[in-house]
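Worked example 2:
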Amino acid sequence: MDIGKLLEAILPKERIKCRLIDLVAYASDAGFYYLRPKAVVQPVSEKEIISLLEFSHRNKIPMTFRTGGTSLSGQSISDGILVDLSQYWNHLLIEDNGGLVRVQPGITGSMVNTYLKKHRRKIGPDPSSIDSAMIGGILSNNSSGMCCGVSLNSYHTTKHIRFILPCGRSFSTEIKADYLRFKEECPEIYSTLLNLKNQIAENSVLSQRIRTKYLTKNTVGYSLNAFIDYSDPLDILSHLLIGAEGTLGFIAEAVMETVPDYPFKSTAFIYFETIYSACQAIGPLTVSGAEAVELMDRASLRSIEDLKGAPKLLRTLPETAAALLVEYQSNSKEELQAKIDSLLPHTSSFLLLEPISFTEDPYIQAFYWKLRKGMFPAVGAVRASGTTVILEDIAFPVAKLGDAILDLHVLFQKYEYENAIIFGHAKDGNIHFVVTQSFNSAEEVVRYDKFLREVVELVVDKYDGTLKAEHGTGRNMSPFVETEWGAEAYQIMKSLKQVVDPQNLLNPGVIINEHKNAHLHDLKSLPSVEQEVDRCIECGYCEHKCPSRNVTLTPRQRIVVRRELALLKAKGDHGTHAELVQQFQYDGLDTCAVDGLCATSCPVDINTGDLVKRLRRESHSGFSNQVALFVSRNFRLVTYIVNFALEAGTFINKVFGKNSMNLMTRGIKKIIPPFPLWSNQLIVSGSILGKYDKFVNSETNNGPAVVYFPTCISRVMGGAIGKKNIPDTFLSVSSKSGIQVIIPEGIESLCCGQLFSSKGYNPAYTDKVNETIEKLWTITNEGMLPVILDVTSCSHTLQQCRPVLNDSNKEKYDRLSILDSIDYLHDYVIPACGPVEKKGTVVLHPVCSLQKMGLERKFVAVASHFSNTADVPVHLGCCGMAGDRGFIYPELTASATAPEAMEVKKGTYEGYYSSGKTCEIAMSEAVGKNYESVLYLADECIKE
């Protein structure tokens, strides 16, 4: 059966993925199971979803819905049809002045909160993966998190949902007529739900059991509390869908009640002598009104102690130590302080290692939470190559939490999980523990099985706790649902699944699974590949940052494919390996922008861009490296040739029409795909006409002076229609601010090396940056003057070049001050420039390098100094230009800029600004407005 061909009757071919690389890329989620789908589809409407359900039933092929793929228990993978909702299901509408928010399943939780921020509201669930986790998964897993507890989780904050059942019928709890229609169109489901509700009501022991179980976090099995909390079958079913992990239907839309996002917060790391004493403090902290109380044992603190910026105290804590990350939140400073003050009488009984110190600094607070959220991946990063990371999610009665943790430590020692860590939401008795495990041998699988069964016995029999508090049952705990709930409750769940999905085609094997060893089936294999790959735990935190995510692959998927290549090679499957290698060239290498933004979201700082650069480097022949080296050593000549080509293209446009070059290069690309596409934003710079010096002179010591390094991009294509070129604009801004500028002689031969490093031509890159550093050392009078670059990505490249410098140039580099134009405007120009004439509202595009360099705040501050309002789009992302890659693969740039461009087009702005010429070209093409260097904003606003 050719599933892909058959699916073309439902969806267009471009939204059906059946190539080997697509199926491999979607075979993994954040958990430790692996199922390769038969097809990946991307529907855009409910009509298409209904058609897919009909297709599934007609062909007896299972179907699974997936959004962010951050699930940890194996519930977002499939060996049938995987329905990817991450691209087209991201609509959002704020209602009731922020009291409600209407969302589709494919928008991330953090994006929803970003839109709600202006209303000082947020959604209730706050999982640590909220930047990547999407609403579909948040609802389907009944997510909670660090602050929401039980009362503000997905179940309790979902007001209405519109859903589609496996039979293809759709209903909405927002439409009154649907209540009667549900009864008429689905009589068997309707009556079964009523019968199950009555069965529970007539059994007082079971009813009380359900009420008690949901006083704490619980996502094991289906949400049986719906039978107690609601009376109408449609309401019951709609709430059973929350936490059903996509096994009962498709949630097309939800209306969620929002919760306050308190403006005043106070946060502290509190260090205790033992984990038991930390647990004893949970009660007083909760009573005093703490919104979050996060527990961390000594091993978990050790996992983050080497992260940049981590408190130094972490390295010196005793082996028995533990910590609580505590946060109070309020509507006023007075109320906030009152909560903290109410805690103080209790602290005398705390066994503290140092006095408690709260902070109200939002940046320190954000960093504390980053440390907390990074614990699970941090353990994964330091695990032995070839092992996977298992994150279990259990809950105990808070009063027994300390004892339960001590018992867990005993199990860790018994089964030799030496690097196990414990952390979690202490206020709710919900803890996570992380162990690293190999599944590469039968003995290791048996060890895990025995360990897990003892954990189940400990949680269920000794403490009457919960086996899955917030991560969902998935495949991992499906064999133990009956163990926790008992036979009657489990039978009710089975009856529910049978009546709603009688053919068991929606996410089979999840929640209801008759295989008692299901947790040991389809385990993910993680072969040793290379450093970047081996550290990755496939959490997916990087994906929302990737500019190629909607075109080819994400960073996680690139790593998944690299692992599959290693497995195929080890098996000797040369044919399949060759096919995957061929497909990976375009999907994995050619369309990676190597922007490195993935590393900013990766808890263990994996830069997949660096991996791709290395793979490109290894693929280059000796001849191609020699050609690149020739270009490096004859850079002046090459820039003259490029300049001539641009002038020729401009001339052709003047003679034959402004789009002639674009049409011509499009035609050539059809024959030679790697041929670059012409952009009408390419404007030759021309000569530098402004005033500057070529060397340090007597004026240098009489006032502020800088060495200006006009980047090759600005020297060649830094022109503008009706305005000065970028170098002359820099000189104008400097002149108005009384700053002397020195431009080195021979600048035409210099380059930051990005042209070569991004493509993996390491010899050429090394040659060029060594030459450049030597020249800058001389012209700056041996580091006396700062060096300013006018393109941020070039600034970042030069700032990061030290590893490839020779020993002599490393010493010189260490004494140089290399700054970006944003630093220059913020630290030099604004203090010196005097009065300005501000523009109205402007919009900014902070380039990737600005984000990596931590200059976003300065960029916004600079723009705000020269305008009344400086907007940064909510959907800001990498433009995908990657120097020249957007000219060669314009589909990458078009996809990457689409969300941001759509948002910007809705506004009206007096100016559009960035700090990188090629990024400005990409955004100008996408928005239809002229993006330009922020230097122009400064020049036009500073008075003469």
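The longest strand covers residues 250-260. The chain has 42 helices and 24 strands.
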